[in-house]
Specification:
alpha/beta, globular, GDP-L-fucose synthase, NAD(P)-bd_dom_sf, EC 1.1.1.271
């Protein structure tokens, strides 16, 4: 019986990266598309995963044997602070429907995508897989973080009650082509890309929020895609795995900004707005378990090779410039009001609140 792999959220940053890797790696290789595999990349328009019946219809249509679950309601700090109930409830509904429908329809394996925000606030570094439940997450995103934590709880419950092979990945900061570049929702690299692009276009200073001193681990989306494909094919345990570059491979936000300036050939003024918060200075995560297992399951006991940050960033900038007019950057109208972004979480939440009579624009 052929494998049918359903990827929820299949047209986002990571879903597009998986499509790229499958198409560019050698057929039947470790990360390339294999004979007997059918890959389905679902988008939000294919079914509302908050709705149990719509989720069941999606699964009955494609009859997946395996699921990579990337779909989520997610945004930047602004969204997490303002929409705590939506971040909690919508993600709980999405995750419960995907996991339970997988159980009801006989899916063999599910891999869900978590986030390092699930870790307790102030936990002693480095972040490791066994520290997820040692304390509450940071208050700024506790709705989203708790919803994601519950996936790990659910995976263990399905394993213990039904013997099912459900697990999860915990990526650090992801960047790459096909990201979300909308002002309110974007994370640091896509946000800085958009700012630098506009600064060069308009002849204005490139302003970076904060001092630029904080350090972060950035993982290129194409590398992350390979990790998901590996986990799907070669990892068989309920325990989640951190997907990240090494603890000592983190880079400062200032260095990120400098590399973006270089990639854009931006000749204007660069400012660091120190009136803005830097956030946590450093939160290193260990990739020791990931690298050990990927090495042990490889044919030649070889180490996984990460894309150098400078190379991945240049590819991301080049993609953004070439695809600017179709990237998630523009403005959309919602019932006569204008909100920034193209088909993004803020628009969806505002649309829903207007329908419920609760929106304030």
């Amino acid at each position: 019986m052929p494998d049918v792999i359903l990827v929820t959220g299949g047209h986002g940053l990571v879903g597009k990266a998986i499509q790229h890797v499958l198409a560019t790696e050698a057929p039947n290789s470790r990360y390339g598309r294999r004979d007997g595999e059918t890959w389905i990349f679902a988008r939000s328009g294919d079914g509302d995963l908050r709705d149990a019946e719509a989720t069941r219809a999606l699964f009955e249509k494609y009859k997946p044997t395996h699921v990579i679950h990337l779909a989520a309601l997610v945004g930047g700090l602004f969204m997490h602070l303002k929409y705590k109930v939506s971040m909690l409830r919508d993600n709980i509904l999405i995750n419960d429907n995907v996991l339970h429908t997988s159980y009801l329809t006989g899916v063999q394996k599910v891999i869900s995508c978590l986030s390092t925000c699930v870790f307790p606030d102030g936990i002693e570094p480095p972040l490791r897989e066994d520290k997820i439940h040692l304390g509450p997450p940071h208050h700024s995103n506790f709705g989203y973080a708790h919803a994601k934590r519950l996936v790990d709880v659910a995976n263990r419950a399905y394993k213990e009650q039904y013997g099912l092979n459900y697990t999860a990945a915990i990526p650090t900061n992801i960047y790459g082509p096909n990201d979300n570049y909308t002002p309110e929702d974007s994370h640091v690299i896509p946000g800085l890309l958009h700012k630098c692009y506009l600064a060069k276009k308009n002849g204005t200073p490139f302003v970076v929020a904060g001092s630029g001193k904080p350090l972060r681990q950035f993982v290129f989306s194409h590398d992350l895609a390979k990790m998901f494909i590996w986990q799907l094919r070669e990892y068989d345990d309920v325990e989640p795995i951190i997907f990240s570059v090494g603890e000592d491979d983190d880079v400062s936000i200032r260095y990120v900004a400098e590399q973006i300036v270089k990639a854009f050939d931006f000749q204007g003024e660069v400012r660091f707005d120190t009136s803005k918060s830097d956030g946590q200075y450093r939160k290193p995560a260990s990739n020791e378990k990931l690298l050990r297992l990927m090495r042990e399951t490889s044919k030649d006991n070889e180490e996984f090779k990460f894309t150098p940050f400078e190379q991945g960033l240049k590819e991301s900038v080049d993609w953004f410039i070439e695809n600017y007019h179709q990237a998630r950057t523009g403005q959309v109208a919602v019932n006569g009001a204008t909100t920034t972004g193209k088909d993004h979480v803020a628009t969806k939440l505002v649309t829903r609140e207007i329908a419920n009579g609760t929106a304030s624009l």
